Amino acid sequence: MCRIAGIISKKLNDKETSAAIKRMCNAMRKGGPDGEGYLLLPELNLAFGHRRLSLIDLSENGKQPMPYQNQLWITFNGEIYNYPELKVDLIAKGFSFNNETDTEVILAGYQAYGTSFFKELKGMFAFALLDQHTKQTFLVRDGLGIKPLYYALNDGQLCFASEVKAFTAFNSNWKENTDWPIYFLSFGFIPEPYTTLEGVHNLPKGHFLTWDHQKQHATLQKFADNYPFPKEVELQIAQQEIKTKLDQSVKRHLIADAPIGVFLSGGIDSSLLSIIASEQTQQVINTLSINFNEPEFSEQKYQEIIAKQINSKHIRYTVTANDFEQHIDQIFNDMDQPSNDGVNSWFVNKVAKENGLKAVLSGIGADELFGGYPSFKRHPLIKKLKKAPRFLLKSAKYLPSDKLKRISFLAYQNPIGEYLFLRGFYTPNVVSKLLKVPEKKIEQLLNNYPLDKEVEQLSAEDRISWFETNVYMQNQLLKDTDYMSMAHGIEVRVPFLDQDLVAKTLALPKEARFNEQPKSILIKAYQNILPEAIWNRPKKGFTFPFQHWFTTYKPMLNEEHYKKNAQALALLKQFKNHQLHWSKLFAVYQVFHHAKKA
């Protein structure tokens, strides 16, 4: 796991290019503490940069940018979990290897099969690959978008990086995307493809961008499979298939030449990963748990059940309100973009780093794929509400309750309205008052938000799952986990998002995936080893006591930070009167104060 950057530009001379690529990499140095490397090719006006976090082949042989056969170069961020199998095939075809990395397998695989090889890669990855023979550079991002890759095309110039902050390191005068606060206050995050910077976008997941050095032109192409059609299968067979795929996934995700652990929150997902990991290796598993002094947020009882069952080396840490206040400024600095999430991930990874770990397994993806969120029960309500006249739905924005206000999103022609009904933050009339932007412009931006057409083919729980996976998980959980883990030089791996497991899951019929009991297929598949105490209890997500902690966080409560905006001050008052969720005021605080300081 690393940080990558690149510049292709005729506008800069060699000295300027060299200095710029180093600035970009230095801005991301926390994510690659184990080394750095650069490639400068003046004849192609190209520079690649790399900051290394080494987990496989820790020797200098794994240094990047990495060449292959005097023709190819790569700068790579991620892990390819099926690289041993791919390597066997390539060796049989006569390809030779100089190291034990998965990076070199990508190079040899491209040499053998061209861009069609990208589809064969199973893991989390974002890389740039230069083919000097064809004079093409490819930017590639994994099919589930686990790893970020941002790029900007401008007047025959291409820049790319693992973090948005690298672009302002490249050019300190890079223009701000003035629409980002609208998206942020509407969604609670800045959704792909948008960022805080003008012209800087996420490379779509499962796509590769081809830059033709001769034509100075870029094209975008999809390589990942589309959403599969469900296939009929008996329930017991489905359970066994999911178990087989998850077992294989965890085994793959344990491949490392550096210490690795499992984040154990005490819920179904992390408990399963911990148990499976203990079965897939002869070594003692490291489990890592966060707890709180506030008993209603503590999951320690359930964490101890699993740690004792698998006899893990269990690392415990209690995060206090004092810890939060002590580190909040550093957490802000480590955010790549404004976020209402990620504080929990920052602390988990801090503890992992302090205990000598290099990688941690996380349960991200299970709720989204197997119906673990309350939103999965709301599809009948959406269907019923959408039958109401549009003018009536629109008028819901005037209702006093925030939850009822969100009904107005269902008037949208764009399916994104359904997501915003489920998880949106502020409705356009409120955002308009906060930002002094015409409500009509906000409505237009949201109505025109780009969504993959495949969601329109889905219904009921499948549709909710698509939203949770492709909007919420993609833009909130994965993004925040990436930069908060990289801030500590830790790699977070997500076995539930293994390509084979996801493909198998999405091909299941609804009745196999979704049930009255959330994640019932996982529970039944592992009923012999997953304790009933873990799954037979109300769901409680891994959350911090922020509602308590923010009541004493003076900067957010300071009226001066809201610049005498009547709507912002009204929201501040609601929070102080315990009538507003902390995350909603936190979003306003960032837009009005903290993000403006950055």
UniProtKB/TrEMBL annotation:
<comment type="similarity">
    <text>Belongs to the asparagine synthetase family.</text>
</comment>
<dbReference type="InterPro" id="IPR051786">
    <property type="entry name" value="ASN_synthetase/amidase"/>
</dbReference>
<feature type="domain" description="Glutamine amidotransferase type-2">
    <location>
        <begin position="2"/>
        <end position="214"/>
    </location>
</feature>
<keyword id="KW-0061">Asparagine biosynthesis</keyword>
<dbReference type="Pfam" id="PF13537">
    <property type="entry name" value="GATase_7"/>
</dbReference>
<dbReference type="InterPro" id="IPR017932">
    <property type="entry name" value="GATase_2_dom"/>
</dbReference>
<dbReference type="InterPro" id="IPR014729">
    <property type="entry name" value="Rossmann-like_a/b/a_fold"/>
</dbReference>
<dbReference type="InterPro" id="IPR029055">
    <property type="entry name" value="Ntn_hydrolases_N"/>
</dbReference>
<dbReference type="GO" id="GO:0005524">
    <property type="term" value="F:ATP binding"/>
</dbReference>
<dbReference type="GO" id="GO:0004066">
    <property type="term" value="F:asparagine synthase (glutamine-hydrolyzing) activity"/>
</dbReference>
<keyword id="KW-0028">Amino-acid biosynthesis</keyword>
<feature type="active site" description="For GATase activity">
    <location>
        <position position="2"/>
    </location>
</feature>
<dbReference type="InterPro" id="IPR001962">
    <property type="entry name" value="Asn_synthase"/>
</dbReference>
<keyword id="KW-0315">Glutamine amidotransferase</keyword>
<dbReference type="GO" id="GO:0006529">
    <property type="term" value="P:asparagine biosynthetic process"/>
</dbReference>
<keyword id="KW-0547">Nucleotide-binding</keyword>
<comment type="pathway">
    <text>Amino-acid biosynthesis; L-asparagine biosynthesis; L-asparagine from L-aspartate (L-Gln route): step 1/1.</text>
</comment>
<keyword id="KW-0067">ATP-binding</keyword>
<feature type="binding site">
    <location>
        <begin position="362"/>
        <end position="363"/>
    </location>
    <ligand>
        <name>ATP</name>
    </ligand>
</feature>
<dbReference type="GO" id="GO:0005829">
    <property type="term" value="C:cytosol"/>
</dbReference>
<keyword id="KW-0436">Ligase</keyword>
<feature type="binding site">
    <location>
        <position position="102"/>
    </location>
    <ligand>
        <name>L-glutamine</name>
    </ligand>
</feature>
<dbReference type="InterPro" id="IPR033738">
    <property type="entry name" value="AsnB_N"/>
</dbReference>
<dbReference type="Pfam" id="PF00733">
    <property type="entry name" value="Asn_synthase"/>
</dbReference>
<dbReference type="InterPro" id="IPR006426">
    <property type="entry name" value="Asn_synth_AEB"/>
</dbReference>
<feature type="binding site">
    <location>
        <position position="290"/>
    </location>
    <ligand>
        <name>ATP</name>
    </ligand>
</feature>
<protein>
    <recommendedName>
        <fullName>asparagine synthase (glutamine-hydrolyzing)</fullName>
        <ecNumber>6.3.5.4</ecNumber>
    </recommendedName>
</protein>
